[in-house]
Amino acid sequence: MKIVNPANGSVISDVPIDTPKSIRAKYDRARGAQPRWAAQSIRKRIDAIRKFKEELARRGETLARTLTQEVGKPIRQSRNELKGLETRLDFFLAESTRTLRDETVLADPAQRLEERISHEPLGVVANISAWNYPYFVGSNVFVPALIAGNAVLYKPSEYATLTGLHIADMLHAAGVPDDVFIAVVGDGSVGGALLRQPVDGVFFTGSYGTGAKIAAGAGRRMGKAQLALGGKGPLYVCDDVDVRTAAAALADGAFYNTGQSCCSVERIYVHQAIHDAFVDAFVAEVKTYKIGDPMDEKTYIGPITRHAQLAVLKRQVTEAKRKGARLMLGGDVIQRKGNWFAPTVLTNVDHSMALMREESFGPIIGIQAVADDDAAIELMNDTEYGLTAGVYSVDEKRARRILARVDAGSVYWNCCDRVSPRLPWSGVKHSGIGLTLSTYGIQTFTRPKAWHLRAG
Ligand code: NAD
């Protein structure tokens, strides 16, 4: 498989891919090795993750450059992702032992009865990952899965393969056995072949379309399946905010990672009283973003990682314009080598346009004026997705009232495009099933076993 730099179309590397036969062999190795890994103390498994963190720090700049080369993420943002990963690892290192400890839920001396819950690993799990934040979305799964005693068959996205191979190499260097964490390399067909193995759990991050196929297969297999899917994150700006501050924050939320985040701000509703001022400030802010070589320290907007996404962006913009949207900035592909789309801002948009209801996953945004909070809430919920949603307002009560009525896994007041390791990360509707992160996102890689113990 050729690994292509999306910034200029050059081939960076050529990697061998897995076949159904090699996948079967990898599955067998993982199945064989998992009980030994689970039998080790949790302290030893945590130690390996601590060493993995040290490896990450040691190789940091090489990893950041690889990520930028294969995904096109601007280099500063690649470094940010690696830095953020350290914080996530700290959370897992600090919380796993306590979270996975056996619990006594009844100790009754009169009946000489004890009831306990232990947290058993699932066994061999498949971790199928997306490319847009490969360190984050991968580690949300493989780190707690390994700590809990599972073996992991990890399929990085075909667009972040070199990063995936670095991850495998670092885990092995850190002491995770070669047969306990195994990379499976290739595209969606390889992912499909991996899921034909009798794994005990599937942890998938990617698009709704792929997730729906995986859910159908998992149903037949009766295995655990968690799906972290797309979003169409709405942000509502109330009439009481400082317009420039809100505009700058939301522009960053919409265009960071070149708009290729599941929790990007994907649509904005602005109270009509401040709409025009907000749009002016927003466009002025986006104009300051430097577009170009992602290896350049000053670059903020890089290429689109997947070439096919250019057509999606173009289609959404063209349709919106045809239906009456006003183009304030950008609006088309940039004609140069690689995959480039100009940062695009559209106003006078409505929900008849795919731009406002379907995931864009790129540097384009629609801004719609609304009459009041009720109208904003109705529009925020008018999509198949439900990953994130936010409100900007100086009034906490007002923000809480609005957010309580919005259907989303994560809600934000005066912030956006944010993930915390301490909070569960989940979606509703087409944004997914299950969760990662938080202590729930550690336990999710285990099954609770019930112990009824009566002293004889
Ligand atoms: P994708 O669905 O195209 O691919 C995701 C992974 O699935 C890749 O590894 C791919 O090779 C594999 N795959 C494809 N077809 C498969 C099949 N039939 N069986 C098994 N595996 C298969 O998604 P993508 O382009 O890599 O990622 C972008 C999407 O991911 C966006 O929708 C984004 O919002 C979403 N995402 C969600 C989260 C979250 O936490 N909710 C995080 C990051 C990205």
Protein traits:
6-stranded mixed β-sheet, 456 residues, globular, binds nicotinamide-adenine-dinucleotide, 13 helices, 22 strands, single chain
Quick overview of this protein structure:
By secondary structure, the chain is of the alpha/beta class. The chain has 13 helices and 22 strands. It has helices at about 20-40, 40-70, 75-100, 135-145, 160-175, 190-195, 210-220, 245-255, 275-285, 310-320, 375-380, 395-405, 440-445; strands spanning about 1-5, 10-15, 105-110, 115-120, 125-130, 150-155, 180-185, 200-205, 225-230, 235, 265-270, 325-330, 345, 365-370, 385, 390, 410-415, 425, 430, 430-435, 435, 445-455.
Structure description:
The chain is of the alpha/beta class. Helices cover 41% and strands 21% of the residues. The protein is built from 13 helices and 22 strands. The strands form six sheets. The chain has a seven-stranded mixed sheet with strand order 12-13-14-11-10-16-17, with helices on both faces. The radius of gyration is 23 Å and the shape is globular. The structure holds nicotinamide-adenine-dinucleotide (NAD). Nicotinamide-adenine-dinucleotide binds next to helix 6 and helix 7. The site of nicotinamide-adenine-dinucleotide has 32 residues, from helix 6 and helix 7.
Count of helix runs: 13
What is the CA-atom radius of gyration, in angstroms? Answer: 23 Å
Mean pLDDT: 97
Side by side, the strands of the main sheet go 12-13-14-11-10-16-17
Ligands present: nicotinamide-adenine-dinucleotide
Provide the helix percentage: 40-55%
Instruction: Using the alpha-carbon principal axes, give the shape.
Output: globular
